[in-house]
Amino acid sequence: MKTGQDIRWQRAQELLQENALDIATMAACLGQDETKLQAMLSAQPSRKIPDALAEQMEQTFCKPRGWLSQSDDGGISFDLFGA
To answer: Which position among 12, 22, 27, 32 has the lowest Cβ density within 10 Å, counted as fewest Cβ atoms?
Structure first.
């Protein structure tokens, strides 16, 4: 079973892919430290994505509140570009 952090990590990976971003560019978009974001979003993350950053990512990338913490169960998609 996936933990909340596993789901957040997976959703953050989706944001990177659908916006064609690398971690450095996402860090710049969010005004975050690249090293800290790398520690959260790398293949083997050493840090958790905190609530405040999750909310900031949702706002920045036009996702509904709580999206980063919800598993993709095949339900409604909130992708604005229909990918």
So the answer is: 22
| Residues 70/76, Cβ–Cβ less than 8 Å | no
Q: Which of 18, 26, 29, 22 is nearest to 82 (CA)?
A: 18
For residue 19, name the pLDDT band (cuts at 50, 70, 90): very high
CB 8 within 8 A of CB 68: yes
Q: Where are the domains of the chain?
A: 4-62
Q: How far is CA 48 from the centre of its chain?
A: 11
What is d(CA 49, CA 82) in angstroms, rounded to the nearest whole number? 26
pLDDT at 4: 83
Tokens of 32: 């975050």
Are 16 and 22 in contact by the 8 Å Cβ rule? The answer is: yes
Q: What is the DSSP letter of 66?
A: T
Picking from 57, 61, 67, the residue whose alpha carbon sits closest to that of residue 80 is 61
